[in-house]
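Handout, section B. The chain below has 291 residues.
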Amino acid sequence: MPSPERFRVALPEDVLDDLKARIGRTRWPDPSPVAAWEQGTDLAYLRSLLQYWSDVFDWRARERELNRFPHFRALLDGVRIHFVHVRSTHAGAIPLILTHGWPSTFAELLSLVPLLTDPAEHGIDGPAFDLVIPSLPGYGFSERPAQPGVTYRYTARLWHRLMAMLGYERYGAGGGDFGSGITTLMALDDPAPLIGIHLTNLELSPSLGPDSSPVTAAEQRYLEQVRHWDEWERGYSSEQSTKPQTLAYGLNDSPAGLAAWILEKWRSWSDCAGDLEAKFTRDFLLTLLTI
């Protein structure tokens, strides 16, 4: 198995020029006839953000920040997978692989690096970790597999192979959203190397079959919340799961289309109380979008 190769984030200048040109040629729709964000991404907000993306946002500065971390790419199952690998300076550090979800990138997890690799320096009474933060297949700087059906289970197997490639025999795993499903399957399918897992959400719903315990009141409230969420927030998943190629033309061709599709979810799913920039800086959001 080939060893991982060092990787540096460096977008070609013509890619950035093309991005600005596409933003400038955006063909905007009419405003929604209802309240802002009620039918989707707000027109005024998106116009303001895209102007910032084109005229103010400094991708080269963001590249320099990203490249402060050691990046690598490894060939796994014929696919080049990008990952950040930061070893703690503390003896006995626990290896830990962290997985992002959709709509996100590895960059969302980088703020955890100093806290987990050197917790004492940040006033945290806890163990230190060696961190492995991969990009999901087809996300960011990881190649998309040629075959369909890139599932939790497929990616879980890749992550076990990646950790073995890096020389780790025992390790922890954590993740959220799609990363939560992958982490769960890492533990279910191949638990032997795992010390433990940490999930920010239950991506795989528990079975409610005939042998299940009676549902508690708290579980019933949870199931009702899931049903409400499915009714109002699940539409994106049906399209991406069944006809992704149709959606790909608009998302790949239009920065405005990509931003509208992704930022609506960041607003709806985060604890920003309807104000994205109360929780996330524009530079952070645009780093995700640019990647």
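Note. The chain has twelve helices and seven strands. Compare this with the example in section A.
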